[in-house]
Amino acid sequence: MKKTIIITLCCTALMAHGATLNLSKASLNLTGVGTASATPGTALSVQAGTAGNVLVIGTFSTKASSTKAGVYGSWQLKSTSQTSTPIKRSLANKADVGIASVVHVFTGITANETIALQHSSSDTSVTVTTLGANLVAIPLKVSTGETLNYGLHQQSAAKSITSTTFVTTDIETSVALPRLTDNRLYIAASFNSQTTATTFPAIGTWQLQYRKGLTGTWTATGSEIRRSMSTASDIGAVTLYGLVEGLDQDTYYVRLVCKTDAGRNVQTLNGTLAAVALSYGNDTTVEGGHFDGFSVTGTALNLVGDTTYPGVKGSLTLASAGTIFASMNFTASATSGANQTAAYDLYTTTGPAVNQANQRFFTSDTDYGSGGSVGYFAGLAAGTHTIYGRYDNVTGPVSSSAVSLVGFATASITSDATPLATKLAVTSINGGDNPHVNTAFNVVVQAQDADGNPTPVIQDTVVTLSLGGTGTGSLSGTLTGTILAGTSSVTISGVLYSVAEHITLIASSTSGDNLTASGPTSSGIDLRAYQTAEGVIVEFTAYDVEEDGEIEIALLDDTGAEVWSGVAAVTAGPEQTVQLLVPGLEPGGSYDFKVKDEVGKVWTADNVTVGALTVSMVHEPSTGAELQFNSIPGRSYDIQWTGELGGEWQTVDTVTAGETTYVVVPYPAGEEGKGFFRVQQK
C-alpha cells in the first residue's frame, strides 16, 4: 500500500508600483563664506522638500586667513530643533586648504524646513572660510509614502587605538532591511582624528564594515582611508562612504574600524555614522522596491581634461529620465615636492556638471589626507550613465589612492510582494510506505506560505519532529533537520518509532524563521484494539488500497506463533478500515498481532493495549439522556435505544468522537423517560 500526497501549487499576481526620492541640494563656489565667530553661523543651507526623516550629507573645503598656530574651524548641521555632531579641522597656515564632510539624519522634519551647514572659528581673530561646498538632503520617505529604515550613531568621546590590525572604534549602528532579497544599504561616516603620539607622523587607517545579524561575519566595504597627523594638535576630518547590494532580509550592523602604522596612538572622535536601507516594502503585504546602485573602488582618479577616463568610474542604467546621487572618498598626497594643492569633484559626460570641486592642500608625499565629494545629477535621459571621480592639479602634481565611489538612482526598481513562509507541513512519511516498528524511516518537512505553497525560508531554519495524538510508543532516532536559507524543505532520515500503531507527527521550528508548527500528520501505522458491547474489536486502517482483496489479522503468542487469525475484504481506494471480533482478549491487556495486506506485505504490531469502553449516565431528564463515554478520536458511534431488554435496538443519534465524548440524546417520539441506551461503534 502506497500513500500518495498531492500538492497543489497556485500563483497570485501582485501589482507593483514605483517610487522616487525627492532630493534637494545647495552648493557654494570657491568664493566661499567666512566667519570669525565662535558662535556657529550659516555657511550654506538646503530645504528638505519632503516631510519626515531626512538624511543630510555634505562635503566642503576650508581655509584660514592667518598663519596663527592652533586655529581650527568647526562645522555642524542644524535644523529648527536638531543639531549634528560637530566636525573640526585644523588649519596650519594661510596656504592650508582642507576637506571635511558632515552627515546626519534629521527626524520629523516638516516639508520645506531649512537645514543649515553652520561653521565657526576657534579664534575670533582668524577668519575661517567655507568654500566649494556641496549639501544634499535625501528624504527617507518615497513618493508613494513608504519610509526607508535607517540607523544613526553619534559619538563625541575619543577612542584611542594603537593596534596595527583593524579594531572597532565603538562607532556602530544597525538598520533593518525589509525585503526578502536584493536589499541595498548605503553607509556614510564623517569623523575627526587626532593623536597623542610623541613620534610623528602618526598615521591612522579606517574602514567601514557590516555584518548580517548579531552572529554574522564582519565584511569590509569600500576602501581603506589613511590620514597622517604631524603634531598632537593636528585635528583632521575623515570621510568614508559605502554601498552594499544584494542583501537578504535581516538586521544589519555597520561599524567603523581603525588601525595604526607603527603602533602610534590614533584617536577617533566626534564621529557620525549613518546607514540607510535603499529598499522598502516587506515582500508579503506591502509591495515596494529598491534603488539600484553601484559601488567601485580603485587606486586612481580621473585627471580633469583626460577624456580616456582611466580612473574610478561607476555606471547606472535608467529606465526613464531621472537622477543619480553619488558620493566619493579617497586618500591622497603630493606626488613630489611639497605644498601642492588639488581639487576633487564628481563628473558625468551625459548630464550637467553640478558638483562643486573640493580643494585639499598637501605638505609632502607623506602627508596622507582624506577627502570626499557628494552631489547628484538631475535631468538625466533614459539610458546608461557613468559617474567619474576626478581631480585637478591646482598648484602641482598629487596622487590619489584607496578611492571608493558609490551611487544610486533616485527612481526605484519595483518588486512584487513575494509570499513569505509562515508555517511548516509534513509532506511525506517514509516515501508513502507504511513504516515498520523500530526501523528507520524518512520524514519530509516543508516550509509553506499562508496558502500552503512551498516557500523558501529566509534564514537557515531548524525543525524538530515530535509525537502528536495518543501514541503509546516512543519517537527516537534523528528528529531534527535544517531547511537551508533559500530552500523550502528538508528530509529527516533515521526516524524510529517503537510500537506498531497509528501515530501522528508534528514539525516545529526551533531556530531561524518563526514558522507555525505543522498539524498532526499520519504515519500510516494504524492498528487498535478496544472493547465493545459485543467483545474486543481489532481494527486496522489501510491507506491507498491498491487492489480488491483481503487483509488478514493474526493474534500471536509470546513465541510469535499464530493463535488466531481472521480475514476481512477490502476494495481498492484511498482509505479503508476493517474490523474483526477477536476472542480471548481482555480490556487493559497487551497483545501482539501480525498483519498481511491485500498485496502480501506483512508487518507486526506489538504490545497493542485493549482499550476499555465505558458508558455512564450523566443525567436523565424527561426529554433524553446525557451520556459520557471514552472513545476513539475520529471514529463514528451510534447511540441506540430500546424500550425493553431483549427488544430491538434502534439508532437515535450518530456522533464523531473525541478522546472522551459527551452527548445528549433524545428519547424516540412518545417514549420519553423510559427504555435503555447503548453506544456502538460503527
Distance between the termini: 24 Å
Total beta strands: 51
Order of strands, widest sheet: 42-41-44-45-39-40-43
Radius of gyration, in angstroms, nearest whole number: 39 Å
Portion in beta strands:
over 45%
Q: Name the poorly predicted regions.
A: 1-17, 521-525
Helix content: under 10%
The DSSP helix count reads 0
Q: Sheet with the most strands? A: 7 strands, mixed
Structural class, from secondary structure content?
Answer: mainly beta
Shape: elongated
Whole-number average pLDDT?
86
Architecture overview:
This protein is mainly β. The chain contains no helices and 51 strands. The strands form 12 sheets. The chain has a 7-stranded mixed sheet, with no helix packed on it. 43% of the residues are buried. Residues 1-17 and 521-525 have low confidence and may be disordered.
Gist?
The chain is mostly beta strands and 682 residues long. It has no helices and 51 strands.
Q: What features would you highlight for this structure?
A:
682 residues; mainly beta; five-stranded antiparallel sheet; disordered N terminus
Topology of this structure?
Blueprint (H helix, E strand, L loop, with lengths): L23 E5 L4 E3 L5 E8 L3 E13 L7 E7 L8 E4 L7 E12 L3 E9 L6 E12 L10 E6 L3 E3 L5 E11 L5 E13 L6 E11 L6 E11 L6 E12 L2 E11 L5 E12 L1 E2 L7 E3 L2 E6 L3 E2 L9 E6 L3 E13 L5 E8 L10 E5 L6 E12 L2 E11 L4 E12 L3 E3 L7 E7 L11 E8 L12 E8 L6 E3 L2 E4 L5 E9 L6 E8 L9 E2 L4 E5 L4 E10 L3 E8 L5 E9 L2 E9 L8 E7 L5 E10 L3 E5 L4 E7 L5 E7 L7 E7 L3 E7 L9 E6 L1
Parallel strand pairs: 22-28, 39-45
Antiparallel strand pairs: 1-9, 2-9, 3-8, 4-7, 4-9, 5-6, 5-8, 10-18, 11-18, 12-17, 13-16, 13-18, 14-15, 14-17, 19-20, 20-30, 21-29, 23-28, 24-27, 24-29, 25-26, 25-28, 31-32, 32-36, 33-35, 33-37, 34-36, 37-38, 39-40, 40-43, 41-42, 41-44, 44-45, 46-47, 47-50, 48-49, 48-51
